[in-house]
Amino acid sequence: MPTDLRKAHDELDKIVDVAFGSAKPCTNNDERLEILFKSYIRMTKK
């Protein structure tokens, strides 16, 4: 992946992490998936 595209993905990941409830940017995709699934469960229970 080109460097500029990788950088854009990394920046977007940080924004999404916080938007979905992480106190800090995730360090890997497993952490990110856990946050996203917990957020999904929380939103679909309403």
Overview of this structure, please?
The protein has 46 residues and is an all-alpha fold. The chain has one domain. The protein has 2 helices and no strands. The N and C termini lie far apart (39 Å).
Note the gap between the termini: 39 Å
Shape: elongated
Q: What is the helix content?
A: over 70%
Mean pLDDT: 92
Output the radius of gyration: 12 Å
Q: How many individual β-strands?
A: 0
Q: Can you write the helix and strand succession as a string?
A: HH
Question: What is the SS-derived class?
Answer: mainly alpha
Q: Low-confidence parts lasting 5 or more residues at pLDDT below 50?
A: none
> How many domain units?
1
| Estimated share of beta-strand residues | under 5%
Q: Work out the oligomeric state of the chains in this entry.
A: single chain
Q: Characterize the largest beta sheet: strand count, sense, and whether it forms a barrel.
A: none
Number of helices: 2
Write a concise keyword list for the protein shown above.
single chain; 46 residues; mainly alpha; 2 helices; 72% helix; elongated; MmeI-like C-terminal domain-containing protein; MmeI_C
Helix/strand layout:
Layout: H1 3-19, H2 29-44
Protein name: MmeI-like C-terminal domain-containing protein
Organism: Gardnerella pickettii JCP7719
Pfam families: MmeI_C
Briefly summarize what is shown.
With 46 residues, the chain is mainly α. It has helices at 3-19, 29-44. It has one domain.
